User: Fold this.
Amino acid sequence: MANKLDYLIEKLCEERGERVPAFLASEKFRLFRALVNMRMPKEASKEFLKIQDEYLQEQLKLKGITDFAELSPVTPDIYLWQGDITTLKCDAIVNAANSQMLGCFCPNHGCIDNAIHTFAGVQLRQECAEIMKAQGREEEAGQAKITKAYNLPCKYVLHTVGPIVHGGLTKQHENLLAGCYRSCLALADKNGLQSVAFCCISTGEFHFPNERAAQIAIRTVEEYKRQTQRKIKVIFNVFKDYDYEIYARLLGANK
Assistant:
């Protein structure tokens, strides 16, 4: 695995016209991730993609995969799961994207957008760039796009831009957040997907209050399923204990 990582770092540095910097062996993955995060969308060689894919699949095995089919619903077709969404096997996971829709360019940033693009591989940013080039404008809040998932265990990624809250929360913020959930569900149905895992959209870098965001998420999903009579299975994915406690209380789940 070390040789694969050395190769990937070397090629990513070559693309930038830079020498491989001096670093500790324990920091190799952070350097690789940083280089991937900063890399602009463009094609990569077949050799690079082959080695990258092999390396990322090895990393995934080390982290472990959770199959949503082995989880128990808290209510019919509704699941609550705490963990790393990049290790979840289901039809689609939802990415909380920004309006560029190209992933996070900040090296080793802790946002979900960064993690999804890192572990999916450089192909994901390239596909997103093609979608945005065809669209010809930035993505509006409340909308959604679908891409392949590449090296993630899910089949697809649904990218949605949540509202950014500056100052007080407004009704428009709430409507836009609800739109994110409706757009993702409609896109999932359009593509015949049977299961979708939602992250806590807008609650991190976009500062949407966690409690209210969870209320809107649950209400919007329940309304969509009731109005459409669709049987799509929805997983509410949380990472922090705080968010788990909120969703567990609202859904009546026990940890």
User: Anything to note?
Assistant: The chain has a mean pLDDT of 95. Helices lie at 2-15, 28-38, 46-63, 112-120, 122-135, 171-190, 210-228, 241-251. The two ends are 36 Å apart (CA to CA).
